């Protein structure tokens, strides 16, 4: 015979069973399943973060070492320049004591500025200006370039003298790769006032620091950081602007042309104009164009 439960007994039994189930569910640990894609992503992010941190620390150490190296090179360049100046003075004094005179060494470097446009130019003239990097998009009026002196360039220069003005720099050693990798173009206008035997290094240094930008990967890049120079010329041991200046302040960037012009750009300098060689009268020219 099956015993029947009263309504009160049924309620009590259901409450007891529900409480037992609740206790069992609370006692069990809830396990969350994480997808494999999420685990892989977290692992990849951790690796990237670690690699980025290591790269930052390595770059920081490299920058510290580069600053020390640049400082040592600048001091070395300053000593070399001072030694050359003292040697030049000593040689002049010795020559004077012997009743003679000292002849300065021939220049190995040339700085050329274009002063006339393209109207009515012979095709040979246009080609020579192009070879001298003074023609086309980067060869407008008042552009200037540093070139290494050789017979071929001097022959071309004599053919285009009415279109340019130029002067010689003091001789320094200049590696051939310097002219192939980077070149400096300086744009400016000028007047003729100041005389000095050779252009002062201060003038060229100010010109590069103020007006220069690099041509890297066929793009014009402002020289706001030595890292740009190191990226382009680091394999040749040139890592900063002072290295460029030491290598005769050449091979680099292009300068922005200032406003202004020349008075008599169609006449030779020796005739009271602006064209041709003005070797002794150039520092004020560069100072004004800078």
UniProtKB/TrEMBL annotation:
The chain crosses the membrane at residues 177-195. InterPro entries: Ribo_uL30_ferredoxin-like_sf, Ribosomal_uL30, Ribosomal_uL30_euk_arc, Ribosomal_uL30_ferredoxin-like, Ribosomal_uL30_N_euk. Keywords: Membrane, Ribonucleoprotein, Ribosomal protein, Transmembrane, Transmembrane helix. Residues 110-164 form the Large ribosomal subunit protein uL30-like ferredoxin-like fold domain. Residues 35-104 form the Large ribosomal subunit protein uL30 N-terminal eukaryotes domain. CDD domains: Ribosomal_L7_archeal_euk. It holds the Pfam family Ribosomal_L30_N. One of its GO terms (cellular component) is cytosolic large ribosomal subunit. GO terms for biological process: maturation of LSU-rRNA from tricistronic rRNA transcript (SSU-rRNA, 5.8S rRNA, LSU-rRNA). GO terms for molecular function: RNA binding; structural constituent of ribosome. SUPFAM superfamilies: Ribosomal protein L30p/L7e. Belongs to the universal ribosomal protein uL30 family. PANTHER family: 60S RIBOSOMAL PROTEIN L7, LARGE RIBOSOMAL SUBUNIT PROTEIN UL30. This is Ribosomal protein L30 ferredoxin-like fold domain-containing protein. It comes from Gossypium darwinii.
């Amino acid at each position: 015979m099956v015993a029947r439960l009263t309504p009160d007994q049924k309620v009590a039994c259901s409450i007891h069973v529900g409480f037992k189930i609740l206790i069992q569910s609370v006692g069990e640990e809830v396990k969350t399943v994480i997808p494999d894609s999420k685990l892989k992503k977290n692992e990849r992010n951790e690796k990237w973060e670690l690699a980025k941190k290591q790269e930052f620390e390595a770059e920081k150490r490299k920058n510290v070492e580069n600053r020390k190296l640049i400082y040592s090179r600048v001091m070395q360049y300053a000593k070399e320049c001072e030694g050359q100046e003292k040697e030049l003075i000593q040689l002049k004094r010795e020559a004077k004591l012997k009743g003679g005179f000292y002849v300065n060494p021939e220049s190995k470097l040339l700085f050329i500025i274009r002063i006339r446009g393209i109207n009515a130019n012979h095709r040979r003239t246009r080609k020579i200006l192009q070879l001298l990097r003074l023609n086309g998009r980067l060869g407008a009026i008042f552009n200037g370039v540093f070139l290494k002196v050789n017979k071929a360039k001097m022959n071309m220069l004599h053919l285009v003298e009415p279109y340019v003005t130029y002067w010689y720099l003091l001789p320094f050693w200049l590696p051939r790769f310097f002219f192939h990798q980077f070149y400096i173009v300086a744009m400016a206008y000028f007047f003729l006032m100041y005389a000095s035997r050779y252009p002062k290094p201060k003038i060229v240094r100010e010109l590069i620091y103020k007006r220069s930008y690099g041509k890297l990967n066929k793009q014009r890049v402002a020289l706001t950081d030595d890292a740009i120079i190191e990226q382009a010329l680091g394999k040749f041991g040139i890592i900063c602007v002072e290295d460029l200046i030491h290598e005769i302040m050449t091979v680099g960037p292009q300068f922005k042309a200032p406003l202004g012009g020349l008075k008599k750009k169609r006449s030779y300098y020796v005739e009271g104009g602006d064209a041709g060689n003005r070797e002794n009268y150039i520092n004020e020219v560069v100072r004004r164009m800078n």
